[in-house]
């Protein structure tokens, strides 16, 4: 698993994918920083983080598109699946590589925090909770998009399908306000990753939300493993 | 050693291979022969644990591929039909990655890598990106990755397809050298290649194993010697004269290619005294009918293969 993680991590930077992800993420987050902090002369970093969370929807598919779809397209999965590494090991290694790139990129936004700290007031506890929620949300999105990548044989299909799924997840919030049937409403809000992260954005640590994000990620990782295994049996 | 016991694979309603059983002992090169779509790749994919069989069992050195997958997979090096290469990596970093996958201990990796690079003739290109290599080199990197971790069993799926004649000779040489200390199973639809390299042949046809035998046994000369001759002279005179020789069993005229030259296929008894060729030469000398061409037909793997597949 470690060797898979290492190779994937190197892979992000042997190809432009890692640079594109980091570059676009940091560019967009600086625009958000400008709009939410500098222009409004506010030091509310949680508002900044809250807006940044929409970047996951857009950028996680870039991070995950290669992971499983490309292996299948180039038939390099034959190397991985005939090696002593187990299928869960392969999927987890890849997942953790994507999470690592995500985490490093998020850490780079610490620069914005420094800027705010120079000119205003930063509340470390609140900030840490905000960042924790933000990263967990990223982990959840990556897991779902990884599963989608596993279902596709082509990187382009993988990225488009993942983007579509992320978009649906975001729209759950909008649908929820439009639909007045209570049980549908409850169902929609159950699946809304954005609603789950609201406590974090108010600076509250929520075990329920942490648990939700983690189990959301775990569920999709298990699904991805199961899907790949089933495909081995089908031989497709 | 690798054993395949009653392996069947169904893709939905389609049966790709049915009830295939064979054993490949250590130190032997086993050739898997079959037309395109005969089930060679499916068989190899199952042997290497890439996909599980619908029915049956694969044993690697006595271990079950399903229940002891990790130990089995460590014992197998696999070169699939299309080498599983990452274009964005250099040859060295790729092989290092494969060594790590195959659980070669960190300390041994550098020496092991150098050995594989030199065995496969890749030392000069070790720092180049795989994506920039020619097809022949890519194939060699594919063979090299199968050697990582020094597995006792090597499974190679059509290792010489698409290579130029010189590279084909090199890869065959490499397989032959590896055959001494490993169990090698390789598939091919090239009969000459199998004939040249293998000690044992398995013939697949439409997903079924139709013949399994030692190479020597398959191509063993029978007591009938078949000669093809082109002789200057008239067919009406030559045929009865040749048939009158005691060692000749049957003479069949072939299509005439050149005016005044008779082409015949002669079936003779082997090991007579004088031998058939000498007797024929003496006879035709006496008749003043010059021999333009005389060749003896070998019972080649091709015949065996055609017979076996035609019988189905």
Uncertain ranges of chain A = none
* Residue-averaged pLDDT of chain B: 87
Under CATH, the homologous superfamily of the largest domain in chain B reads P-loop containing nucleotide triphosphate hydrolases
How many beta strands in the DSSP annotation of chain B? 14
The domain count of chain B comes to 2
Order of helices and strands of chain B: EEEHEEHEHHHEHEHEEHEHEEHEH
Q: Return the string of H and E elements of chain A.
A: HHHHHHHHHHHHH
Please give the order of strands in the largest beta sheet of chain B: 6-7-8-3-9-10
Residue fraction in strands of chain A: under 5%
Average pLDDT over all residues of chain A: 90
CA-based shape of chain A? globular
Rg of chain A from C-alpha positions?
19 Å
Derived from helix and strand composition plus strand pairing, the structural class of chain B reads alpha/beta
Number of domains of chain A: 1
Rounded radius of gyration of chain B (Å)? 25 Å
User: Which pair of protein chains has the largest interface, and what are the residue counts?
Assistant: A-B, 27 and 34 residues
């Amino acid at each position: 698993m470690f060797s898979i993680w290492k190779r994937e991590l190197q892979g992000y930077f042997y190809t432009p994918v890692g640079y594109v992800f980091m570059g676009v993420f940091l560019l967009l987050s600086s625009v958000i920083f400008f709009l939410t902090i500098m222009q409004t002369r506010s030091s509310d970093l949680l508002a900044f983080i809250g807006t940044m969370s929409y970047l996951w929807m857009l950028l996680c598919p870039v991070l995950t598109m290669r992971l499983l779809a490309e292996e299948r397209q180039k038939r390099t999965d034959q190397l991985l699946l005939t090696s002593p590494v187990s299928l869960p090991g392969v999927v987890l290694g890849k997942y953790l590589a994507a999470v690592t790139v995500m985490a490093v990129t998020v850490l780079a936004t610490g620069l914005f925090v420094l800027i705010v700290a120079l000119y205003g007031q930063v509340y470390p506890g609140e900030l840490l909770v905000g960042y924790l929620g933000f990263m967990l949300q990223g982990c959840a999105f990556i897991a779902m998009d990884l599963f989608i990548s596993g279902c596709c044989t082509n990187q382009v299909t993988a990225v488009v399908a993942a983007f579509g799924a992320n978009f649906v997840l975001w729209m759950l919030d909008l649908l929820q306000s439009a639909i007045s049937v209570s049980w549908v409403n409850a169902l929609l809000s159950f699946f809304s990753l954005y609603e789950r992260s609201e406590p974090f954005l108010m600076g509250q640590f929520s075990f329920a939300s942490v648990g939700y994000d983690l189990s959301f990620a775990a569920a999709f990782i298990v699904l991805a493993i199961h899907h790949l295994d089933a495909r081995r049996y089908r031989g497709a | 050693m690798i054993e395949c016991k009653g392996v069947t694979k169904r893709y939905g309603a389609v049966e790709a291979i049915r009830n295939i059983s064979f054993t490949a002992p250590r130190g032997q090169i086993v050739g898997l022969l079959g037309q395109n779509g005969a089930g060679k790749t499916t068989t190899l994919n199952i042997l290497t644990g890439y996909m599980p069989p619908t029915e049956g069992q694969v044993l690697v050195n006595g271990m079950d591929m399903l229940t002891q997958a990790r130990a089995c997979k460590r014992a197998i090096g696999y070169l699939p039909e299309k080498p599983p290469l990452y274009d964005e990596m250099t040859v060295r970093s790729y092989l290092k990655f494969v060594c790590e996958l195959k659980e070669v201990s960190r300390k041994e990796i550098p020496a092991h890598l150098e050995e594989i690079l030199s065995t496969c003739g890749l030392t000069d290109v070790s720092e180049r990106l795989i994506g920039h290599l020619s097809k022949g080199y890519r194939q060699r990197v594919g063979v090299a990755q199968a050697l990582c971790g020094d597995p006792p069993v090597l499974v190679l799926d059509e290792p010489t397809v698409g290579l130029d004649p010189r590279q084909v000779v090199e890869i065959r040489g490499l397989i032959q050298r590896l055959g001494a200390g490993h169990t090698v199973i390789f598939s091919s639809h090239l009969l000459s290649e199998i004939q040249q390299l293998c000690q044992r042949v398995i013939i697949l046809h439409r997903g079924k194993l139709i013949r399994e035998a030692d190479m020597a046994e398959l191509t063993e000369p029978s007591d009938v010697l078949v000669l093809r001759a082109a002789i200057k002279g008239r067919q009406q005179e030559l045929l009865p004269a040749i048939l009158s020789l005691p060692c000749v069993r049957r003479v069949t005229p072939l299509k005439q290619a050149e005016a005044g030259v008779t082409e015949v296929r002669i079936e003779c008894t082997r090991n007579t005294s004088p031998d058939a060729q000498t007797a024929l030469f003496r006879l035709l000398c006496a008749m003043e009918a010059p021999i333009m061409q005389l060749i003896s037909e070998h019972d080649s793997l091709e015949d065996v293969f055609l017979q076996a597949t035609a019988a189905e």
